[in-house]
Amino acid sequence: MLDIRRLHMLRTVAARGSITAAAQSLALSAGAVSQQLAALRHDVGVDLLRPDGRTVALTEAGRVLLEHADRILAAMEEAECAVAAVKGTVGATATLAALPSTVARIVAPALTALGTDHPQLAVTCLVTDQAQLRELTLGTVDVVLGQHYHHMPETTPKSIAVSPLLDDPLLVVTATDGAVSGSDGRPVGLRELATDHLVVPPPTTDCGQAILQACQQAGFTPTPRYVTADIAAQLTLARSGLATALVPRTAIDPATPGIRAAPIGDNPIQRFLFAATRRTETTNPTTAAVIAALRTAARQERTTHLPPT
What we know:
- 40% of the residues lie in helices and 22% in strands.
- The protein contains 9 helices and 11 strands.
- Helix 2 crosses helix 3 (30-44) and helix 5 (103-117) crosses helix 9.
- The termini are far apart.
- Mean pLDDT is 89; it is low at 179-184 and 305-309.
């Protein structure tokens, strides 16, 4: 009989591209993973992996087995959800992956509420910009607080269930006494920023790519003076008058001194924040509790306004 843990390891190696990377994500040694995969190879009697440069790739038999493994692992999770639903109680642990820009205004209030409503639930929070949905499909996390920019292609896998949280526009942030575009708080056209000193995230990030494409749609390609994904650094540069920043509304503390935030008037850049879990027929009470707390925090965020937008 095939071992569920070994099937999970095979899927993780296939997704990570190497035994070493898979071992790190599984908190195991590379030797332990190799040993379990060797046992799986013995169980099925055929090679499942082959060298591919510095990485490994699935053989044809490996691809076939992985297709079945995905269904088996999904069925196992469905069974766990069904039992949890019968129990009707929130579990003891959950793992949440969230974007750094959502921590202060959504994640922290949600976790605080969870601590009050479900004190037995310990939530581990992974704060990262990278590949949250992949971690969800691999089972590394239970809930993702993710984002999708409205003018970008939709890439959410069908195996993922999405719960809407909040529409979150990017605002033009400048110094309160600055002379750059948008410093008077009026709606700003993106085209007006063509000659500003911009600070933007790297183009390899979702936000950086969304800003790049929106500016191109507005008729220019930005040549940023500063490139950083650190929103605190972006706001510091804006507050000092060195740059104009484009920052999600939820990432800005309304009480931050020395900055002014203005909406984009012509080509708005708007991200959609969502909570995502693996799709199952039966709702898991634990992940449902986490998502409910995120929804409540998002509703509260909608009532917060940034003057003078």
